[in-house]
Design brief:
- The chain has 269 residues and is of the alpha/beta class.
- It has a single domain, classed as 3-Layer(aba) Sandwich (Aminopeptidase), CATH 3.40.630.10.
- The protein contains eight helices and six strands; from the N terminus they run αββαβαββααβααα.
- It has a six-stranded mixed beta sheet.
- Strand 2, helix 2 and strand 3 form a beta-alpha-beta unit.
- The longest helix is centred in the middle third of the chain and has 21 residues.
- The radius of gyration is 20 Å and the shape is globular.
- The termini are close together.
- The mean pLDDT is 92.
């Protein structure tokens, strides 16, 4: 289910994409007769490796600073649009959660770390590099939550088949279930690949993802349509609230989150 690092090569034949609205317009025009479209393609390859970085900040834990809860998103995007919903929205949700927790002056037991990963679109490069660089600390990462499914409302959290953690996360998120504007439903065991929670999950760290309202994500991401006007600001605010509550309440738990059992790990293989 996970994306692998990929070696990108220039295509032998140039390829262009049209957003849905433009395609439909061309389709209707050609139904009335002959239609032509002119495409200008410009680009270049450096031919050299490019150094990129993850962006990391944290609120230091007051009692167990070496134990960590991570909330994250990916900072890079495809270059066809502006990357507004893939993954500008997720990055903003993480920043808004960090700002809110800092403003209210929380002093969590464990460290809350905010990570904007790079190179997700090229094969989860940033999160894989993070896991590799912190391999000696993975046992002390309680859990990771990633926001990466567009601008839609967060409906619940996907637990990647980690049944052992379900009751604990349900209690941690219960305050959000009582808020009318949020009404988060109980956590799901659903699995999802292709985003930055996956390298953590593969390494045995509880890695989770935000299960969201699709909000036309499938029509916008990786296209010219992925622009700021498609962002649903109220839903994005709700997503930031979910991430902030997850981060703080998991940081306050008596113990680290349970890891997957051997049976659950086998089910992922």
């Amino acid at each position: 289910m996970s994306a692998q690092s990929r070696e990108y090569q220039a295509a032998l034949v140039p390829v262009a994409y049209a957003v849905r609205e433009n395609y439909e317009q061309l389709w209707h025009v050609q139904e009335e007769g002959h239609a032509e479209a002119e495409v200008s393609i410009a680009g270049s390859f450096s031919g050299k490796p490019v150094q990129v970085y993850n962006t990391v900040a944290e609120i230091r834990g007051a009692e167990k600073p070496d134990e960590v809860v991570i909330i994250g998103a990916h900072l890079d995007s495809w270059d066809l649009g502006t990357g507004a919903t893939d993954n500008g929205t997720g990055s903003m949700a993480v920043l808004a959660a960090a700002r809110a927790l800092q403003k209210v002056g929380v002093k969590p037991k464990r460290t809350i770390r905010f990570v904007l990963f790079t190179g997700e679109e090229q094969g989860l490069n940033g999160s894989r590099a993070y896991v590799k660089a912190h391999k000696d600390e993975l046992a002390k990462i309680s859990g990771v939550l990633v926001h990466d499914s567009g601008t839609g409302k967060v409906l619940t959290i996907g637990l990647m088949g980690n049944y052992a953690v379900r009751e604990t996360i349900d209690h941690a998120l219960y305050p959000l279930a009582k808020v009318k504007e949020i009404e988060l439903v109980e956590p799901s065991l659903r699995r999802e690949g292709g985003s930055d929670h996956v390298p953590f999950d593969e390494a045995g760290v509880p890695g989770f993802w935000c299960v969201q309202d699709i909000a036309d994500y499938d029509k916008m991401h990786h296209s010219q349509a992925d622009r700021l006007e498609h962002v649903r600001w109220d839903d994005l605010t709700e997503g930031a609230q979910v991430m902030a509550v997850f981060a703080y309440n998991v940081a306050q738990l008596p113990e680290l989150l349970p890891r997957k059992t051997a049976k659950e790990k086998k089910a992922d293989q």
